[in-house]
Specification:
- By secondary structure, the chain is mainly β.
- The chain has 2 domains: 275 residues, no CATH class; 107 residues, Immunoglobulins (Immunoglobulin-like), CATH 2.60.40.
- It has 2 helices and 34 strands.
- Strands 3, 14, 15, 17, 20, 21, 23 and 24 form an 8-stranded antiparallel β-sheet that branches.
- A hairpin with a 6-residue loop joins β7 and β8.
- The N and C termini lie far apart (48 Å).
Length: 403
């Protein structure tokens, strides 16, 4: 969902593979991409950890105009040494024709372990032991809303080079308009940044609308362990964290308060402990900020929320009042885990929904007995979330007794 400042390879005829020559120079810092859309900004990633991998993505049906679509592939060479190298075949398959194929020679006559970024060609860089490839595929997806996209990556040995070739990352960032009046400001920085000491990543969000519903910062680091983070000098735990199987850390933070104050965003990183010392490697940061007036109230019907019956699924009546019609997602969480996700078109005003908790609880889970023969019933902590444009606009929590 971004038009990135790194040069991109244009799609060629399906039967031809795109190949590039090497041009080893130290890369200056590139400017992040930014813009505004009405639909959404999707960030989809895979962390294969092997010499082959695949990412699939369903383009939203309401993506009337795809403003930008960018693919990123990161391949591990095993070392910063110049005797390392790999070949890579990257295939992008859509539903409107033959697959588009790219061929990459991942080698560089320069290398260092100090975080310098070297230009390999007009769409590939090397930093430490990693090669980062970028393709702008916006034109390839024109008119393909409501269809699927597949990205396949395969690496193999290069002659006269030591080969590792495991794939750290396959990513797609896609920004689109859906034709309504929503405004989503976004910024994308796909720079490779490696450090073994504390480091601040700076993001200029001064142009963002500060009357926002919710703003988030998503960062993907290709490191063996996670770091410790401050945002604008405040220690902050991520709302969402995923640690992958092979050098992959995904973090997402709520930065709404900072954007509301008109502040730029500084992500201060204290590297975690890698295999041979402190190490942190950022490759993709995405900031989104949803402005507008969408809001809701949520109520769970009193006659259904008080009890949960073991041995059965359980239904709950949920009333959602909204001031803006559109596509929403309603999540039901039980003890902190999402057990049901319902996509629905809500009208302006009152909407009544039936939400199902599909969990079948054991019959003996209902109660436990204390030493004085009194009965203490087990409970479930529920939360209902209403999501609009990938942002939680309201939620309601309650507790139900297992009978």
């Amino acid at each position: 969902m971004i038009v990135l400042s790194i040069g991109a390879v244009s799609a060629q005829d399906a039967d031809d593979a795109v190949a590039s020559t090497n041009d080893d120079t130290v890369l200056e810092d590139s400017e992040p991409a930014s813009g505004t859309v009405s639909g959404g900004v999707d960030v989809v990633t895979e962390n294969p950890g092997k010499t082959s991998g695949e990412l699939t993505y369903d383009i939203p049906a309401d993506a009337k105009t795809i403003k930008s679509a960018d693919v990123y592939v990161n391949v591990y060479s095993g070392s910063a040494n110049t005797d390392r190298g790999a070949n890579a075949n990257i295939t992008i398959t859509t539903e409107n024709g033959e697959p588009v194929k790219y061929f990459e020679e991942l080698k560089c006559d320069q290398g260092s372990t100090d975080g310098k970024v070297y230009t390999v060609n007009d769409h590939t860089t090397k930093c430490y032991s990693d090669y980062m490839i970028h393709y702008d595929i916006t034109s390839l997806l024109d008119g393909l809303n409501g269809t699927s996209l597949k990205i396949n990556v395969d690496t193999f040995k290069m002659e006269n080079k030591t080969f590792d070739g495991r794939i750290k990352l396959i990513a797609l960032v896609l920004a689109y308009d859906d034709g309504d009046e929503d405004k989503i400001d976004y910024l994308v920085d796909a720079s490779q940044v490696w450090t073994d000491t504390d480091k601040t990543l700076n993001f200029n969000t001064s142009s963002f609308n500060n009357e926002v519903l919710k703003s988030t910062l998503t960062n993907i680091a290709l490191s063996s362990s996670d770091g410790t983070y401050k945002i604008n000098n405040n220690f902050t735990e991520a709302e969402k964290h995923i640690s992958g199987t092979f050098y992959y850390q995904f973090n997402q933070w709520n930065i709404t308060d900072f954007i509301k104050k008109g502040q730029n965003i500084d992500l201060y990183v204290i590297p975690g402990q890698g295999y041979s010392g402190p190490s942190y490697k950022s490759v993709l940061s995405v900031i989104t900020s949803v402005s507008g007036t969408a809001s809701s109230t949520v109520k769970v019907s009193d006659n259904t929320k008080d009890v949960v019956y073991p041995g059965f699924t359980n239904n709950f009546t949920v009333t959602v009042d909204t001031n803006k019609a559109g596509k929403y997602v309603v999540n039901l969480l039980a003890n902190g885990e999402i057990v049901n996700t319902t996509e629905c078109d809500l009208i302006t005003g009152t909407n009544t929904l039936t939400i199902i908790d599909p969990t079948i609880r054991p019959l003996n889970e209902s109660a436990k007995y204390t030493g004085n023969s009194s009965t203490v019933y087990n409970t479930v902590d529920y939360k209902v979330q209403v999501v609009y444009n990938n942002q939680v606009v309201n939620e309601s929590s309650y507790q139900a007794t297992i009978l």
